[in-house]
Amino acid sequence: MQYLWSVMVMAMLLVSSVAAQKSNFRRPTKVTTSCCESVSKSLIPYTVKEYKFQNALGPCVEAVIFYTDKGAVCSDPSARWVQRKIKELPEREG
C-alpha cells in the first residue's frame, strides 16, 4: 500500500511539472497587421513602380496599394485613374 501511494504521488508531481512547463510558453497578446484601413481617390503625385490588391478583411479595406519612392499609398480601386494606372504597371508579388 505504501508503494502504491508513493507511485501516485510521484505521478502527480510529474504531471504537475509537465503542465507547469507548458504554461510558460508565451503567446502573442496582440497580432498586428499592416494594411490599408482607409483609401484615397486622389491622384498620386509620385512615380509609381508597382501595385498590389488588398482584399477587405476588417480592419483592412479593399484597396489598391501603389508602391512609390516615397512609400506605399492606399488608393480606392473604384477610382478611374487607378484602373488606368494598373494597366501600366507590373503587379507586386507577395
TrEMBL record:
Protein name: Chemokine interleukin-8-like domain-containing protein
Keywords assigned: Cytokine, Signal
Keyword Signal listed: yes
Any one GO cellular component localisation term in the record: extracellular space
Lineage summary: Eukaryota, Metazoa, Chordata, Craniata, Vertebrata
Single GO BP term: immune response
Chemokine interleukin-8-like domain segment(s): 32-89
Single GO MF descriptor: chemokine activity
Organism, as annotated: Albula goreensis
Signal peptide location: 1-20
